[in-house]
């Protein structure tokens, strides 16, 4: 059975991928501060600042590494450089969970898979650095999955909105920013399909329809039946601004397309 190692398997996205793939693959994960994972025999402690990732990789010898890490940016860049060197010489592929923020300097239109990346944020620039090191690999060796904001019933973003409403803390919203979105459930299905079909290259995995950030957050508040939300509207520019990556070249089949309405449906109260 194919061995898959999920870096950041204890995190929100890493763990939802872990749960999706577990029945079908020989799965391993890393954790850092979430010590409850130390009890799981296929989880390894890994700290991107102190440890060499190749120690874990050489122990497991996975055919696929999925990178869902957070942590200090420069340490993550160095970690992915080690991974790219390893992948060049071994029977292994690398899937990097990237972000729409690699395009956050382009405000006037959505971006597509092969558009030039450019970011004004430290987060986007660090994602670009890692993407560029993957791009030095043969195309059959990597997947770059660019995600918008990820929601879901138990997503940290959803929980944060609930906590803010409960405590009366204003929720920061961007009425001028047009976004697309996804959910943990939809993302897991898409990643599973990419792995099964052995697809490689760059994928934009957000909803195909667009909405302003403010409207989407208002819809979540209403869907979760939260009462008394206070919004703090932030205008970064006078014009509408896109933070959107859409698929053009590497489209998944229709049953894996996502709409923001379907993401909201996933947010019904249990
Ligand atoms: N969530 C979103 O909306 C979203 C959108 C676009 C892209 N992304 C990208 O998706 C990836 C995963 O995001 P997430 O939301 O799942 O984050 P998360 O829930 O915070 O999970 C991060 C993972 O990284 C691990 N980690 C944190 N610090 C570390 C360190 N110093 N050394 C080693 N491991 C460390 C965490 O381990 P412990 O928990 O055990 O400490 C956890 O497994 C990130 O690269 C993020 O940029 C996320």
Describe this protein with a few key phrases:
270 residues; alpha/beta; Rossmann fold; UDP-galactose 4-epimerase, domain 1; 2 domains; seven-stranded parallel beta sheet; three-stranded mixed beta sheet; 8 helices; 20% strand; binds NADP nicotinamide-adenine-dinucleotide phosphate
Describe this structure in words.
- With 270 residues, the protein is of the alpha/beta class.
- The protein has 2 domains: 3-149 and 182-204, 3-Layer(aba) Sandwich (Rossmann fold), CATH 3.40.50.720; 151-180 and 209-243 and 251-265, UDP-galactose 4-epimerase, domain 1 (Alpha-Beta Complex), CATH 3.90.25.
- It is built from 8 helices and 14 strands.
- The chain has helices spanning 12-21, 53-60, 73-89, 122-134, 156-167, 184-196, 213-223, 260-265, and strands spanning 3-7, 26-31, 43-45, 64-67, 93-99, 142-147, 149-151, 171-173, 177-179, 181-183, 201-204, 211-212, 231-233, 241-243.
- It has a 7-stranded parallel β-sheet with strand order 3-2-1-4-5-6-11, with helices on both faces. It has a 3-stranded mixed β-sheet with strand order 12-9-14. Strands 7-10 form a two-stranded parallel sheet.
- Strand 1, helix 1 (12-21) and strand 2 form a beta-alpha-beta unit.
- It is globular.
- It binds NADP nicotinamide-adenine-dinucleotide phosphate.
- The site of NADP nicotinamide-adenine-dinucleotide phosphate (NAP) has 23 residues, from helix 1, strand 5 and strand 7.
């Amino acid at each position: 059975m194919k061995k898959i190692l999920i870096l950041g398997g204890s995190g929100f996205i890493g763990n939802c991928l872990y749960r999706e793939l577990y029945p079908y693959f020989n799965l391993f994960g890393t954790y850092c501060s979430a010590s409850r994972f130390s009890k799981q025999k296929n989880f390894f402690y890994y700290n991107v600042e102190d440890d060499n990732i190749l120690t874990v990789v050489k122990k497991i010898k996975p055919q696929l590494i999925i990178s869902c890490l957070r942590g200090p940016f420069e340490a993550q860049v160095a970690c992915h450089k080690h991974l790219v060197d390893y992948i060049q010489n071994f029977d292994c592929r690398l899937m990097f969970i990237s972000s729409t923020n690699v395009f956050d300097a382009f405000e006037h239109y959505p971006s597509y898979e092969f558009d030039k990346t450019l970011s004004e944020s430290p987060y986007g620039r660090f994602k670009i650095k890692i993407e560029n090191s993957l791009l030095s690999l043969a195309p059959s060796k990597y997947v770059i999955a660019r995600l918008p904001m990820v929601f879901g019933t138990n997503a940290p973003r959803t929980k944060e909105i609930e906590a803010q409403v409960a405590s009366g803390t204003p929720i920061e919203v961007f009425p001028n920013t047009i976004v697309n979105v996804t959910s943990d459930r939809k993302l897991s299905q898409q990643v599973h399909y990419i792995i099964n079909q052995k697809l490689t290259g760059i994928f934009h995995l957000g909803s195909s329809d667009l909405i302003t950030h403010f409207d989407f957050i208002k819809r979540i508040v209403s869907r979760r039946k939260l009462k008394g939300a206070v919004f703090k509207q932030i205008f970064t520019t006078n014009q509408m601004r896109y933070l959107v990556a859409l698929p053009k070249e590497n489209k998944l089949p229709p049953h894996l397309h996502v709409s923001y309405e379907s993401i909201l449906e996933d947010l019904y109260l249990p």
